[in-house]
Specification:
The protein has 188 residues and is an alpha+beta fold. The protein has four helices and six strands; from the N terminus they run H-E-E-E-E-H-H-E-E-H. Helix content is 41%, strand content 17%. It has a four-stranded antiparallel sheet, covered by helices on one side. This is RWD domain-containing protein.
């Protein structure tokens, strides 16, 4: 019974540290979901990754899995889980929940950078050559897709021109129909 009480206290500690980002599915044996974000002082524009992990405990070692993620490709998802699982194997079997959650946040913070190519120009967002000049980029807040700023501005300007042209074409067609349009086939 003492172990159960200790584990419940540990779950309470996780919940007090992570607040609404921690959802307790089952109190004993503990099963929780944790929404983790990199440490950016809550500046969401500087957040390029996030994840939700599930932890079942006190299995030996705890079962840790990824529920959802944004901004992490498959390789970085695998690395994140591998690092958390390695940490779980290093820690003693009790009082590890907060340490595992902190490991997850630390690892995610280290991965907090855009990865891959700009979806518009297909060139890397961040050059692999540290000597190269970095192009400014931006991300969409809802999905975390990142683009070179110049590419998204060029696309946005093109879209505005297309919308304007489409509106002119619709207006011309409407005016043409109002003025009698094509009279062929309309006479009985």
């Amino acid at each position: 019974m003492a172990e159960e009480e200790e584990v419940k206290m540990e779950v309470e500690a996780v919940q007090s540290v992570y607040g609404d980002d921690c959802v307790i599915i089952e109190s004993y044996p503990p099963y929780l979901h944790l929404h983790i974000k990199p440490r950016t002082a809550d500046v969401s524009s500087q957040q390029f990754v996030e994840a939700a992990i599930g932890i079942r405990y006190p299995k030996e070692p705890p079962l840790v899995y990824l529920i959802d993620s944004k901004g992490l490709d498959e390789q970085r998802q695998t690395l994140l889980l591998s690092n958390i699982r390695d940490k779980a194997c290093e820690l003693p079997s009790c009082f590890m929940l907060v340490a595992l959650c902190e490991e997850a946040v630390e690892r995610l913070s280290a991965m907090n950078h855009p990865d891959g190519d700009c979806p518009l120009c297909l060139y890397p967002l961040v050059s692999e050559d540290d000597q190269a000049e970095r192009l400014p980029f931006m991300k969409l807040m809802s999905c975390f897709h990142c683009f070179h700023s110049e590419c998204i501005i060029r696309w946005w300007n093109w879209l505005q021109i297309e919308n304007k042209n489409n509106a002119k074409n619709v207006s011309s067609a409407t005016l043409h129909l109002r003025n009698g349009g094509d009279q062929q086939g309309m006479e009985l």
